[in-house]
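Hello forum,

I keep getting stuck at the same step: I have a sequence, I want structure tokens, and every attempt I make locally crashes halfway through. Rather than fight my setup again tonight, could one of you with a working pipeline run this one for me? It's a single chain of 794 residues.
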Amino acid sequence: MSTGSERPEDTALLVIDHDGGVIACTTGAVELTGSTAADLQGRPVQDLLTDPGAWSTLCDHAPAAPAPQSVRTSLKCAGGPRGVQLELLPVDGLLDARFLLRLVPVDLADRRDENDALLRALFSQTGIGLAVHDTDLRLVRGNKLPNDPLLSTTPSGRRLEEVLVPEDAASVDAQLRRVVATGEPLIDFVTPARLAEAPERERAISLSALRLAGRDGVVRGVAVTFTDVTEQERARRRAVLVGTASSALGRSLEVGRNTQVLADLLVPAFADLACVDITEAVLIGEETGEFATGAPLRRVSTVAHGGPWPGELYPPGSVIRVKAYESERLRGGSAVIVPDIEELRPRIAEDPDRRRLVLAPGTASYMVVPLQARGHVLGAVSLWRTAEQPPFDTRDAAVAEDICSRAALAIDNARRYTRERRTAETLQRSLLPRPALKLTAAETAGVYVPGRTPTGTGGSWFDVITLSSTRVAFVVGNVRGHGLNAAVAMGSLRTAVRTLADLDPPPDELLTHLDDLVVRLADDEQPGESDGSVRGATCLYAVYDPVSARCLMAGAGHASPVLARLSGETGRVELQPGPALGLEGAPFEPVEVELGPGDLLAFTAGSLSEASGTGDGHVVEYLRATASRAGSAGCAGRAVTEIGRDMLAPFLARPPDDDAALLLARVSASPAGSVVAWEFPADVRVVSDARALVTERLAGWGLDDLTYTTELIVSELLTNAIRYAGGPVSVRLIKDQRLVCEVSDPSETQPHLRRARPTDEGGRGLFLIAQLTHRWGSRYTASGKTIWTEQLLP
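Reply #2:
Ran it on my machine without issues. Output:
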């Protein structure tokens, strides 16, 4: 009888008597032959075969054979002959039965033979580990691998924890138990598999596992195949390391930051110790020349896995001067490997410099890789491994050279940027005025702060321009772009503002002229040029007159200044800024603010001018609060430079991405009695009266030494004004650091200095004034013009 779980090839059996007749059969035999059991019983076996001789051959060998014999022939079936394999098994005993004959179809017999051959091949090969574990994960069977302690001997119920280190055994054990519990196969699971007898030696395997179950569905265990993939894992990690280096190096444009990133990449992923030495020229951003013996290298970055940097080696920051052998190797460009440091020790025992360069305590192998970019030596990377890791080899050298070549390009780019940034900063600062000025009109302090990003040096700027009649102009602005081009554009814009300021127009008129000039300058720029374009620049121009204590200002796309009054009231000046320069050409609206002595104006540019709540705009709010405190009575005596440092302290602690400029101005008023003014009708007879008044005033100021020249100046200017411009005409004297003399008339015709011919009756007045004064000039006013002169005080 057969069960439903049995296969026909296993149950097609015939019971044969001593005469070769069929005594009994199984259902499988009935199904295979297509005959009934009654038809089969009693029939000779020869009658069932197409080749009767096959039965004779089988019977002749059966008694002497130690195992079942088989032969292939054809079976007579209801549907026609069918190839079968006859397997004969003798039966001992007193019963009528002599043999058991199994009928196996040829195709099934071939498949069974293939399965048997596959199992024999798997368990006899020594390339791939094959192990069968029971449900408790004891080793039941396996092929013999000469170099594997688990399968090198005959299995005897060993467990994984007896062969592998505990943590690795636990990892594999958990995976195999999951396969036993769920039946889900495990495919190519890569895991560490360090041997308990050598836990320090790296070892990785690729593991696959299948659950084994019998025909009855009962789980018998798990079949495992594994291969040693230690070298493949090392190669994969090397590739990952190179990929990580490609993305990590070059993000910063600081030499020191790139060297530290390089050292951190290599330890502990590639080595146990690493240091980066860079030439002095690279660190200061200079061009690297030919690397010569004895050239100084500075140890910039060091990393030691699991502890501090060894004291036996050169410490960070030290200067190293390499000798001829090392210098030649660095110029060669290839990595130098010392697989066994112990072999090197006796050779450099008498050279203390080389010992501090190479002999790291507890290390077993050493490698040095040159840093070269664009044909120049930038430095070197030294690497050490302890005995727990395999010594450096040629594959490691290729990886290290690849990584260091990428690092060298990043370091050289940082060097080039360092040089350009230093040039831009130097140019930027050279174009700015002195940080602190003390004038009659104001005490000023200016600060320029480069940004922290690679493009941090930009076009933020400020200026303080002394004007005629003790007035002063405060200028602040920002040019689009960053770097050297922005600094050059800023210089052009500042020069243009100073040139226009010399004509002394009102702020709105100056910005109008400046806007037109920017349009023309922008037309001359190269197409596509963005960094350093004057188009779109911002500017705020303010003129303060200490005589009237009023400040007139106008802006072109720039934030208004913060005004901190002496009373403590603080806020931005209500100024409606016009468009940025060179964009729309709209008119610029001026605003006039009345100030008091001690009031503080804070002009900002760049990051300090950003709107509150965005970027570094919170600094503006802090500036308001600080300016309010600075304007209070308790801080009124503090220097403006000190106030500026306090304002920027939080700002400088964490510089913004973009640059910034701050200009502080504490205004003053002209002292009482230092200004006197008269108005005269258009009558030349008043010239003598004017001279008398001037003489009296100078005597009161103690400036008798300037009486003669001042009378001459007033006579000449007043006479010309009455003669050519009409009246009324006003004269004003201002005693400041210089003596200022002004004559104003209603005419808008500007005077011109010329050299008179010998036959000319006039035309020598302005020439004479130019010889007697320190400076002179003229400016337009709302009602005409003013000609002014300055004389140095005795």
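Confidence is low (pLDDT under 50) at residues 1-6, 611-619, 630-634. If your local run keeps crashing, start a new thread with the error log.
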